[in-house]
Amino acid sequence: MQQLLKSSTTENRLKLLRDCDEQMGSNWTEKIYQSIAQTIDQRSQVYMRTDVDVRVESVLFGRNRSIIVSSNHGKLIMSNEVCN
Predict the structure, then answer these.
(1) Could you read off the pLDDT of 14-71 as tens digits, one per residue?
(2) Around 57, how many Cα atoms within 13 Å sit in the side-chain half-sphere?
């Protein structure tokens, strides 16, 4: 945990979380990044305050441009609109 808190970049933290998941058979990376994506969706929706029905979807990418996680709405977009 101390290593995670002392890490200087998000990318290093992601690597530490993935290593921990692999060693312990846990799912912390998914849980943490899923929470981040959901929070982005919620806060962005509140920030926009529009009368138009706009749905915010988040997809978080790593430095190598691979998808780390997507919010529940983001998964819907990725499966229905981007990939088809």
Answers:
(1) 889 999 999 999 999 889 889 998 898 888 888 877 777 777 788 888 888 888 888 8
(2) 15
